[in-house]
Amino acid sequence: MSKTRNSNKGMRLQRSIKTVDELKARCDVNEFTDCWNYRGSQFDGTPHIWVQLDNGKCSQVKGGRAAYIIANGHEPAPGLQVYRYKCHNKMCVNPEHCKAMTKAQIGALIAKEGVHKGSPKYLVSNRIKALKRALVAPDLVRDIRGSSDSVSECSRRTGVAHQTVSAIRKGQTYLDAALNSSVFNWRPA
User: Fold this and answer.
1) 60-74 pLDDT, tens per residue?
2) Has residue 185 been placed in a domain?
């Protein structure tokens, strides 16, 4: 059995891509966008490529990360993710399009470029989040503010998200409930 494992490990090392030229040879290059669309194995519409990692083991990783490892000779630093900042094409494995960034940097870039703007999937997601925020009744807000429970206990008891309970207690949201104001009890002067 150990003989089989060793032979499989050797096979993985042989089929791993080691150079940028080997990677480009397995791609269809788009002249206009300079994207290298990978022709090999895919999972959920994303390329998966065998590469040798820093620890010497071979592993199958997503296309952008694999391109980064092959081009730079090492994995990205801890806390960094590889993002296709030029083309946003899931099939592209051009190392020049891939950059290691933090999640905050990726989020800022996506917001700046409007990558998801108008996408039905993200519009629905944002609408659901907004509705969940809007469902906290004024009497529940007063209960949350007056409670001596911890944020976690109050969240469990009321069914309101942990972050929302925290924001209510800090006075960051639902300020009108704190003042006992409502559109229904407004009186003209």
Assistant:
1) 999 999 999 999 999
2) no
C-alpha to C-alpha distances, 11 to 47, 76, 94, 155, nearest whole angstrom:
19, 25, 25, 52
Question: Domain count of the chain?
Answer: 2
Is 125 found in the same domain as 155?
A: yes
Q: b or e along 116-150 (b: 16 or more beta carbons within 10 Å of the residue's beta carbon)?
A: eeeeeeeeeeeeeeeeeeeebeeebbeebeeeeee
* Whether the Cβ atoms of residue 29 and residue 61 lie closer than 8 Å to each other: no
Tokens 């791993």 identify what position? 16
* 156: number of Cβ within 10 Å: 13
Contact (CB, 8 A) for 142 and 177:
yes
One domain, residues 140 and 155: yes
pTM: 0.60
Q: CB within 8 A of 19, min separation 6: which ones?
A: 70
Residues 98 and 128 grouped into a single domain: no
- Least confident piece of the model among 59-73, 119-133, 143-157: 119-133
Residue 52 lies in domain: 2-115
The verdict on 19 and 108 lying in the same domain is: yes
What pLDDT score does 67 carry? 93
